[in-house]
What we know:
This protein is α+β, with helices and mostly antiparallel strands. Among the domains are: about 150 residues, CorA soluble domain-like (Beta Polymerase, domain 2, 2-Layer Sandwich), CATH 3.30.460; about 55 residues, no CATH class. The chain is about 55% helix and about 15% strand. It has a 7-stranded mixed sheet with strand order 4-3-5-9-8-7-6, with helices on both faces. A hairpin with a 4-residue loop joins strand 7 and strand 8. Helix 5 runs parallel beside helix 8, helix 7 runs antiparallel to helix 8 and helix 8 runs antiparallel to helix 9. The chain is rod-shaped, with a radius of gyration of 36 Å. The N and C termini lie far apart (about 95 Å).
Amino acid sequence: MGRPTGLPFSLPVGGKLSQLTPRMATILIHRDGKTSRAGAVDPAWIEEGAGVTVWVDVGAPSAEDGLLLRDVFGFHELSVEDALSEIHHPKVETYDGYLYVILHGIDFKASEHEFATHDADFFVGPNYLVTVTDGTSRSIPETRETCERNPRVMAEGPAALAHRIIDTMVDHYRPEVDKLEERIDELETVVFESGETRATSQEILDLKRDVASLRRIILPQRDVLGRLARREFPQITEDLAYRFRDVHDHVVRLADDAMLYHDRLAAILEAHLSNVSNRLNEVMKFLTIFSVIFLPMTVLTGLYGMNVPLFHFPGGEHVQFFWILGIMAGMSALLIGLFRRSRWF
């Protein structure tokens, strides 16, 4: 059998796959108490009893990388298809010989008012872990550096390594959520304490959209981690179940925070609209008082501005203007006195 065009692996005589080197993958192996990088995947490593723990991280997977998942590791076609797709709903499924988990990393884009997600797919086998991401995950490089510094990390096994990556992913949620909470606190101070109306409804609605995006990410992952914490799968030992329970608790708190933020923003929006309404009422009251004060003056000046004979006040022609001016001032003073007595201002 010849070598398939464009694929970075070789096939020996007899058609059996010996090694495969994915183009965008990092391969770590742990054996004899040491962790090191490898340039290719040897199928003998993933056999039970091989004494080797393998972690293959595939970033920005291509169709060629799908051959690694199907032909070397023997993953089911449906799980491989999910791993190669860009965005998929968080879930956990068990297949013959391995556990398949999809979770999302987080990246808050304030300019776009949304929490962007990054798929992280985990294939957890008896002595191997395969992770598939879009190449932008922060948790994968951090965990990889930890593994290379500390050989005991991979010595704990693939499931424990998957937990460490997931725990790091969830830890990255908190700083992003804290930034969102700070923005809500600032907006709450403006609306409630200062009573100003400079906060726009659009700002509040943008924050509500951010919170809705956060809830859309958190809630499905809470359910997935809950299943891992309940030891529903043979790959999760009792010790790992306790670890996943701790991660699940963090996600539950994040979900509770998201619900709280939603309620706070609803209250902020209601208070803001109330402030705007009160401000509008104040403006309308001022304009009404202003109009009522000047309405009699307008009528009086309109009457005396017509070319018809009207009543003349004592003193002759030269004092008529001052009579009208005095009457206007008296009417204004009377109306202002009535308004102040009624506590209109």
